[in-house]
Amino acid sequence: MVDSEPSNRALTTTRFSELKPPISEPVIQALTAAGFHLCTPVQAATIPLLCSYKDVAVDAATGSGKTLAFIVPFVEILRRCPSPPKSHQVMGMIISPTRELSSQIYHVAQPFFSTMPNVKSMLLVGGVDIKTDVRKLEDEGANILVGTPGKLHDVMERLDILDFRSLEILILDEADRLLDMGFQKQITSIISRLPKLRRTGLFSATQTEAVEELSRAGLRNPVRVEVRTGA
Ligand code: ADP
Ligand code: MG
Predict the structure, then answer these.
(1) Predicted local confidence at residue 9, as pLDDT
(2) Which end of the chain has fewer CB atoms surrounding its CB within 10 Å, N or C?
(3) Which of 9, 13, 14 to mutate to test the pocket of ligand 1 (most atoms within 8 A of CB)?
(4) Are 95 and 155 in contact (CB under 8 A)?
(5) Predicted local confidence at residue 8, as pLDDT
(6) For position 163, what pLDDT does the model report?
(7) What is the pTM of this model?
(8) pLDDT by residue (tens digit) across 127-143?
(9) Spans in the chain with pLDDT lower than 50
(10) Helix/strand/coil for 163
(11) Is the dihedral of CA 50, 214, 92, 75 positive or negative?
């Protein structure tokens, strides 16, 4: 994991176990097992909003703890879904700009995804042959997809066996970099295939005009969360 400026990671006095609405016990246990007790400012602000079904546009510096700020509510929302999903029913998607970042998110998320024993996740990034990914998805299905826009878009184009109609939550991480790297078209195309009634979280380290525009196109009445360095 990339370590970053400790000043950006100042903790609040708010415990994860004190947040409202309350986080489920298995997720608190996974946080505790990983050594996380107190929220960073961006986590304290964002988790309750997403858990209350608000869209969020989050602008907070690198190292401020954005990964858990979306993984915790992502898992909480999926845990609330009543029946175990069908094998090819995709309930949640996390998009990030690079293979390394997607792998890192996938790795950090594993203990939290594991609190849902009937839910299967898959990492979809460049460097793996698309045919291998497609075959695996056809054979095994997946309920959570984590990956890069290029690969996710390719998979959605090629595979109509995946069912996105009951997708609950979409996360766009490092939105500023996603746009800098020229992924606007793939992201717009991915979003156009997802149900409108979903939660969306957009996370960014800088607020640019392009991020604003993506936020207007992909989010519904978003609550803006801004955490300045050292806050
Ligand atoms: P960002 O995505 O905002 O750049 P990360 O989510 O990668 O930040 O987190 C940066 C570092 O802070 C990671 O090493 C992570 O383990 C650590 N971290 C995140 N949340 C907490 C927390 N609540 N308590 C202690 N450390 C944390
Ligand atoms: Mg990050």
Answers:
(1) 63
(2) N
(3) 9
(4) no
(5) 54
(6) 97
(7) 0.96
(8) 999 999 999 999 999 99
(9) 1-6, 231
(10) strand
(11) negative
Predicted pLDDT at 83: 85
36 CA closest ligand 1 atom index: 24
Residues 6+ apart with CB under 8 A from 32: none
Phi, psi of 57 (to 5 degrees): -115, 110
Buried b or exposed e, range 14-39, using 16+ CB within 10 angstroms: bebeebeeebeeebbebbeeeebeeb
Lay out the sheet containing 199-204: strands in order across.
Answer: 121-124, 144-147, 92-95, 169-172, 199-204, 56-60, 223-227
- Tokens at residue 68, please? 């858990």
The protein residue with its alpha carbon nearest to ligand 1, atom 24, reads 36
Which two tokens mark 200?
């969306």
Ligand 1 closest atom vs CA 173: 2
Query: Whole-angstrom Cα distance, residue 50 to residue 56?
Result: 7
Instruction: Tell me what pLDDT residue 5 has.
Output: 46
Residues with CB under 6 A from ligand 1: 1, 3-4, 9, 11, 36, 38-40, 43, 60, 62-68
Joined together, the tokens standing for residue 171 give 């996360």
215 and 170 Cβ atoms separated by less than 8 Å: no
Residue 154 CA to ligand 1 centre (angstroms): 31
10 Å Cβ neighbour count for 155? Answer: 20
